[in-house]
Design a protein that fits this description.
The structure is a single chain. This protein has 273 residues and is α+β, with helices and mostly antiparallel strands. The protein folds into 2 domains: 6-175, Alpha-Beta Plaits (2-Layer Sandwich); 182-266, no CATH class. It is 38% helix and 22% strand. It has helices spanning 24-42, 70-83, 118-128, 139-145, 151-155, 207-217, 223-236, 240-249, 254-266, and strands at residues 6-16, 50-54, 58-63, 94-107, 113-116, 135-138, 156-163, 169-175. Strands 1, 2, 3, 4, 5, 6, 7 and 8 form an 8-stranded mixed sheet that branches. It starts with 5 loop residues before the first strand and ends in a 7-residue tail after the last helix.
Length: 273
């Protein structure tokens, strides 16, 4: 890639939350683990199309290939970092920002390729608006990928304008497909006439968790039917396995049932077999 010209790059900016407050030994442990997780994903990208930048408390990845390729990378990384909160031995969180914008390629002091330009600056600012383990996406990136597939419109929620420290406004979208582990579900859910759980002597299913499942389920069944099936299923189910089975059996299309089953298994559930 020649220097001097302007490139349109997809930039994923990652930042370890509260990294600077850790002692040196903990910083080293966190950074090595972070780099391992990120490398597992970005090593799959074409090396000539990828520039990695160590930012001290995180990393920026500039990718010059198909912009759509970086979305599943960012999404899987968000899931990987979220999964650390479930007894992995690592408790750090990472903010993620994804942007599409102009950059220039330059040579740094170590004679390695580096990137400069608004594309990477805006990616950092988009990231700065995120909470721990949250993926935010710029409007420029969303407008490109949403023209490729309608799935992006269902997974990315428009949050609106955010102002950075220079009072520049950025239009931001949030990944709303949550990581839901089986451990997030209590074993019993007592339901009334709505999806809102009643308090009982036993633990209950969190209504927010049911809402997340619903967001995936409506991809395979009409919303009105899906919500009714879920309402009836949570009333009858004694545990998460039964709930999954009820929901899967209500999907008539074999391919759709398989897809939803894979979604459940990915997050640690068992259900229809």
């Amino acid at each position: 890639m020649s220097e001097g010209r302007t490139w349109l790059a997809t930039v994923l900016f990652l930042d370890i939350v509260d990294y600077s407050t850790e002692d040196v030994n903990q910083q080293l442990t966190t950074k090595l683990h972070f780099q391992t997780l990120v490398s597992q994903e970005i090593d799959k990208l074409e090396e000539q199309d990828t520039i990695r930048l160590d930012t001290g408390d995180g990393m920026a990845i500039c990718y010059f290939g198909d912009p759509e390729i970086m979305y599943p990378v960012a999404r899987r990384l968000r899931d990987d970092f979220s999964a650390l909160q479930n007894g992995s031995g690592y408790s750090y969180k990472v903010r993620l920002g994804l942007n599409l914008g102009p950059v220039k390629i330059v040579e740094d002091l170590n004679h390695e390729r580096n990137c400069i330009g608004s594309g990477i600056n805006d990616a950092e600012r988009i990231m700065s608006f995120a909470a721990g383990n949250q993926l935010l996406v710029s409007k420029s990136y969303f407008e490109i990928v949403s023209k490729i597939s309608n799935n992006y419109s269902t997974e990315l929620n428009h949050l609106g304008l955010r102002s950075d420290k220079h009072d520049k406004q950025h239009d931001v979208y949030e990944l709303v497909v949550d990581v839901v582990k089986a451990s997030d579900f209590p074993t019993v859910f007592e339901a009334g006439s709505t999806l809102k759980a009643k308090v009982s002597d036993a633990e209950k299913f969190d209504p927010q968790i049911i809402e997340r499942i619903t967001k995936e389920y409506v991809k395979y069944i009409k919303r009105t039917e899906a919500e009714e099936i879920i309402r009836l299923s949570v009333r009858q189910a004694n545990n998460i396995n039964e709930l999954c089975t009820f929901l899967l059996q209500a999907i008539s299309n074999t391919d759709d049932r398989y897809s939803f089953d894979q979604y459940l298994k990915y997050y640690g559930y068992t259900g229809y077999s």
